[in-house]
User: Fold Sigma-70 family RNA polymerase sigma factor from Roseibacillus ishigakijimensis.
Amino acid sequence: MKRTRNLAQEWKEWLAREGGRLLMYARQRTGSLEEAEDVLQDSLIRLWGYQKERGYCPPDVPLAFSVLRLVAMDAGRKKGRRKKRDEKVIQLHDYDEHWLDPTLEDDEEALLLRRAVEGLSDKLREVVTLKAWSGLTFAEIGAILKISHNTAASRYRYALELLQRELNHLKEERHA
Assistant:
């Protein structure tokens, strides 16, 4: 029980000494004070876990800054992905994604695109659907399909090449 009190006191003293600098660094790495506080809190939780081998003693300051930097970068990436996903949702609602709507098959380009996507192999079609219309990252697609993110990215690029070739071919035929 006494060791627990000592640890708590050590952490309180460490936070009193280093907390301001860590928060200032987090603030510089994020867009707002609220985000900085969240990043600092997440960093402290990670640091606590990392300190298991050291008897949960407060960490070295360079390690704390390093973990804070990584957590801030992760938070920035998540925020960027969330923003892109939100923008795509807004675009989907603002822009008439008519070719996804089977009731509007009279639109010739929508029909061509639908047929081209349907003509892809199952593996390629699945990756295109998850990436283009679900907004998932290649890492997320890889986890869902039980493949590496590199394989998911490769399938996506290959599918886009095939779709482009097919659509160019169909457009040339149409205008010939």
